[in-house]
Amino acid sequence: MDHRKVRKIYWICWLLASxxxxxxxxxxxxxxxxxxxxxxxxxxxxxxxxxxxxMRCPYCRGLxxxxxxxxxxxxxxxxxx
Length: 81
Ligand SMILES: [Zn+2]
Known about the structure:
There is one protein chain. By secondary structure, the protein is an all-alpha fold. It has one domain. The protein has helices spanning 3-26, 30-54. α1 runs antiparallel to α2. The longest helix has 25 residues, at 30-54. The protein binds zinc ion. Residues 57, 59-60, 62, 74, 76-77, 79 line the site of zinc ion (ZN). The chain crosses the membrane at residues 9-28, 34-57.
């Protein structure tokens, strides 16, 4: 998987999770609130797992920075990625 694609998925997970948690916090039922917020947290964890597994340099498998933008060159081996 392309690390730029994975970064998009990672951002979408964060966005989706924030929307879900905000909407969940607005729910009147406390039990439902907890369930919805838990779903949001699961989405964040899922995004992080995908990022850690796939947001890597295709040459040396070095982990790229998870926040911000994808670098043009690998910080470990210096190859264009
Ligand atoms: Zn590298």
